[in-house]
Each structure stands twice: as C-alpha cells, then as structure tokens.
Backbone:
C-alpha cells in the first residue's frame, strides 16, 4: 500500500506528461520518451490498485487524506499542479474517491496515452506532414499576423509627395497580405471543417497557430479534443469560431485599406496638380521677363508696375479659384460616393437572389451593404446628394440588419453541421482505436445519436440543408450498426 500511495501522489506529474505539443519534428520526438514513461507508470499504478482490491476484497476503498487510519487511505494529488485542461479529472481534495473509481480514471488516462503514442508515430512517419509542420513553426500565427497588419494600417497620411508615395506602396503591400490571409483562413477553415482525417485537421490547426504551436491536452467528458496555444485552453471546435471572427475582421480591414489607399491617391493627385501649375507659371514669367529685357527695355518701370498689379490681382483670383475648386472637389467626391454606394447596394441585392446561399455569399453581401452605408454616412452636408444619401441610408441599414441576421442563421446552421461532422469523425476514430471496448462503443453510439439530432434540426433554407439530408441516412446507418 505504501508504494501505491507514493505512486498516486505522482499522478499530477504523470498526467501533465500525457500531452503532445505539435510543433517541429524535433519537438515531437523529444516528447515521446516522457509520454511512454508516464504511460508505463500509469499501467503500474493500475496493476497495484488491482492487487490492492483483490487483496482486501473491498470495492469502495477510499482515496482521501490519511486521517482515518485505514489501510486503504491514500493522499490525493494536489490539483493545483495539474493543467487546467485536465484538472477536473481528479475531482477535489474534499471529495472521497474509491479505488475502483480511480482505477476507471486511470484506464481513461492509459487510453489517452495510447492515442498520443500512435498519433506521434503517424506524424513522424509522414514526411510531407512533418515538412509542413516544420514550415508552420517558422511563421507567425494567423491572429498575430492579422494584429501586425492592423497595427501597420494605422497610418496618418503625410502631406509630402515622396512620403505619400512610400505610404501608398506600403498600403498596397498590406492589401496583398490581407488578401493572402483571407485565402489562408478559408483554407484552414475548410481543412478543419471538412476533413475526415485527424492528421489533416491537425495540419489546419498548425497553419492557424504557426510558431505559437499548440498542445493536445486532453479529451473532455464528451471526447472533445482540448488544445492549448499562446496560454489559451479551448476545444478544437472553437478554432472554427475564431476563423469566422477573423474572416469578418479581415473583410472590414480590407475596406479600411481601400479607403486609406483612395485618400493617399487623391492627396498625390492634388500635389501633382499644384506642382504642374507652379511650373507653368514659373515658365511663363521666365519667358515674359526675357521678352521684356530684349524688346522693351525702355518701358521697364511701367511694365513692372503692371506686372505687380496683375500678380496681386491674379493671386486674389487664385485664392478664390482654390476655394471654388475645394468646393467642387467635395461635391464631385460626394456624387461619386453616392453612385458607388448605389452600385454596391445593387450588387449586394443581386448576390442574395434565389437563396439558399453559402455563408461566404451572405458575408459578401453583408460587406457590400456595410461599404454602401459607410460611403453614404460620410457624404458631407450641403452637397447636392446629402438629402438623397440620408433617405437611402435608412433603407440600406434595414437591408444590412436583415442580411446580418441571415448571416447569423447561416453561421449557426454551418456550425451545427460541422459539429455533426466532428462527432461522426470522433465516433469513427474511437471505434477504430478501441474496437473491443464496450465503454468506447457506447460513447461512439451516443455521438452518432447527437450528430443525427443536430442534422435533423438544421433549417430547410440554409446552405447545408441538402448536405444534411444526404448525410443523415449514412449517420443513421452507422448508428444502427453500432447499436
């Protein structure tokens, strides 16, 4: 019993060793030995518990602090030493735990150890997979890349030609990065959502986490994979939700970059126009001075007086002309923005004709309504289209809210569909890994049932309703077979 007490007190350290950080291949290889050692010690504890139960013929011996003086009392491990992702599997120090219950928990930990060992072996045996993991480990995570671009786009435009050119080039580069990031997040989302291979799913997570890496911590009570990255512990499914959030944020940032680029281009054009005007005036004065010197040298005083008067008069005219030009430019820009908003509205309305549509289509329509509203909302007062813009703005906001609600509905349907797929994948993997375990088969059956219920609840007008109907008979057949 003394050996058992010592080993049980080592449980927190053992369970902390039962996790796999997915990074480069060298890191994975370094973890195999600690995982194997912890796994062997758990099996040793399992044997000692079985011997103790057989020896005492007691099925409910307590695992608690040794204040009772009984032979079967054990110190419970300190929960504070255990990772948050698995702490709940120990219970707490105030709760008595029978040796039989502890034995069941150890069986689960041992199964988890087998899973990690098999997974590490599968990863290291796939050269292409290892190369991709090594590549991801050298690049920023997707959230950090987005954060860096967002910070870099906080640009105050400088009223200087050379500086404006540099800023415009930077803005164009950030726009390209955003488009690449948008494509990458779509690829990651599809890899995690649609793949039936755990290795492909892990590749998607690796691309999302980048050099931050991620760790497979535990399977919760529903056999949802718990992972951690950058100090954040969460279920695997939540990464898909993060992808949805980043899709929206990237779309908004692309709009902001477009507006910033347009402002920079307009500022450059204005400087170029002013520079051209100065050159023309300077050349004209230079030619005129030469002519006066050569041809009318005797009338210098009179001509200079006339020029000075003309210059003062011209200066006043230029000032008036600049005011009119600013006013005209503001009016033209207001009209252009109003027309652009109308075009965006027509495009948004056209996109959602004849539903159902996929989530990207609804998101694109939502973005176009947002852009149209932004343009109308920034039309200055006292322009000819100000009142028309206000009238349209009310209608556009109604349409935007309606589309946003449809986006939420579609997101929920898509999330539910992917949740059903995830449950199906887990059910299949569990049965494959432990085909003779009655407990695992019961859990797999429950997952098939949950997946079926989710598919049956997906709305008819969603984009995944047809897929749900096609998938439902397959899930029912698998459920019936395992039942």
Residues:
């Amino acid at each position: 019993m003394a050996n058992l007490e010592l080993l049980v007190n080592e449980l927190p350290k053992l369970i902390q060793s039962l996790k796999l950080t997915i990074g480069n291949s060298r890191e994975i290889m370094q973890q195999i030995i600690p995982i194997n050692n912890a796994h062997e010690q758990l099996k040793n504890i399992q044997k000692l518990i079985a011997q103790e139960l057989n020896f005492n013929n007691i099925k409910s011996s307590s695992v608690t602090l040794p204040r009772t003086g009984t032979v079967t009392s054990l110190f419970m491990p300190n929960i504070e030493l255990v990772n948050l992702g698995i702490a709940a599997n120990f219970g707490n120090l105030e709760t008595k735990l029978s040796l039989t219950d502890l034995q069941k928990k150890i069986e689960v930990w041992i199964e988890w150890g087998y899973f990690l060992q098999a997974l590490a072996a599968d990863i290291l045996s796939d050269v292409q997979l290892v190369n991709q993991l090594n590549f991801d480990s050298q690049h920023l995570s997707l959230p950090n890349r987005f954060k860096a671009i967002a910070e870099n786009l906080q640009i105050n435009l400088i009223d200087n030609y050379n500086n404006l050119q540099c800023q415009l080039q930077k803005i164009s580069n950030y726009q390209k990065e955003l488009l690449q990031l948008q494509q990458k997040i779509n690829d990651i989302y599809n890899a995690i959502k649609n793949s039936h291979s755990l290795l492909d799913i892990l590749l998607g997570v690796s691309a999302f986490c980048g050099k931050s890496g991620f760790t497979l911590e535990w399977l919760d009570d529903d056999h949802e994979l718990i992972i951690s990255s950058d100090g954040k512990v969460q279920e695997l499914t939540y990464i898909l939700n993060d992808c949805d959030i980043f899709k929206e944020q990237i779309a908004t940032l692309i709009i902001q970059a477009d507006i910033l680029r347009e402002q920079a281009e307009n500022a450059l054009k204005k400087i170029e126009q002013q520079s051209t005007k100065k050159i023309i005036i300077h050349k004209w004065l230079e030619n005129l001075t030469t002519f006066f010197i050569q041809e009318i040298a005797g009338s210098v005083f009179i001509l200079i007086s006339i020029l000075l008067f003309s210059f003062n008069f011209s200066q006043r005219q230029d000032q008036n002309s600049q005011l009119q030009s600013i006013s005209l430019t503001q009016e033209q820009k207001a009209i252009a923005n109003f027309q652009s908003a109308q075009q965006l509205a027509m495009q948004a309305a056209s996109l959602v004709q004849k539903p159902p549509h996929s989530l990207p289509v609804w998101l694109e329509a939502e973005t176009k309504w947002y852009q149209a509203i932004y343009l109308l909302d920034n039309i200055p007062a006292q322009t000819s289209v100000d009142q028309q813009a206000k009238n349209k703005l009310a209608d556009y906001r109604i349409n935007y809210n309606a589309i946003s609600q449809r986006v939420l509905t579609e997101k929920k349907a898509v999330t539910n569909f992917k949740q059903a797929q995830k449950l199906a994948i887990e059910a299949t993997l569990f049965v494959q890994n432990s085909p003779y375990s009655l407990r695992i088969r019961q859990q797999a059956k429950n997952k098939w049932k949950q997946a079926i219920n989710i598919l049956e609840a997906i709305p008819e007008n969603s984009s995944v309703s047809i897929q749900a109907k096609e998938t439902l008979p397959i899930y029912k057949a698998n459920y019936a077979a395992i039942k």
